[in-house]
Design brief:
heterodimer; A: about 110 residues; mainly beta; 4-stranded antiparallel beta sheet; about 50% strand; globular; B: mainly beta; 6-stranded mixed beta sheet; 5-stranded antiparallel beta sheet
Amino acid sequence: EAGVAQSPRYKIIEKRQSVAFWCNPISGHATLYWYQQILGQGPKLLIQFQNNGVVDDSQLPKDRFSAERLKGVDSTLKIQPAKLEDSAVYLCASSLDRVQPQHFGDGTRLSIL
Amino acid sequence: QKEVEQNSGPLSVPEGAIASLNCTYSDRGSQSFFWYRQYSGKSPELIMFIYSNGDKEDGRFTAQLNKASQYVSLLIRDSQPSDSATYLCAVNPSRDDKIIFGKGTRLHILP
């Protein structure tokens, strides 16, 4: 079974630029999550999708972050404009449903200069 | 605010001994509990999950859940240097709530 795929693995941009991350979940997984993990901390949920609908985006900074999951499969997370404090690893995870264990992709390490 | 608490460590354990990692949670109605292992520079990897009170064993790993006291533990028997990592506890308060991760406990197995 193929795991959660994410790209790119690394991204370096300057502040105020924009960036986009892509995630392809495990086949058949209805729930998809985007997390932000800052060094030394646990993952922080940014947004949770159930199929193509948003379940929770309460911690998503909506003035600069956006995410979509068209057709209920792949998802993209965008930051525009980026701030220095956005430097982190962005993790995508998926699960069969909202109470099943989550499986994580390799993440995207974002550095803001 | 619902919280998941873990001792940040580092927890140092001699090779071959039992490592005991603890996690407490604030929402008494929490339903699902997960342990993830995260190596430095890598993403979290699911080790164990438990839904019911009591113990669940998988190889060298045992998860223990005590809902009355609101804690969940992970025991690692016969600890190996390869077990050195950060262990994340995650709690799903309910089907309609978002999962909450603790900050993780750094475990160091001493050869």
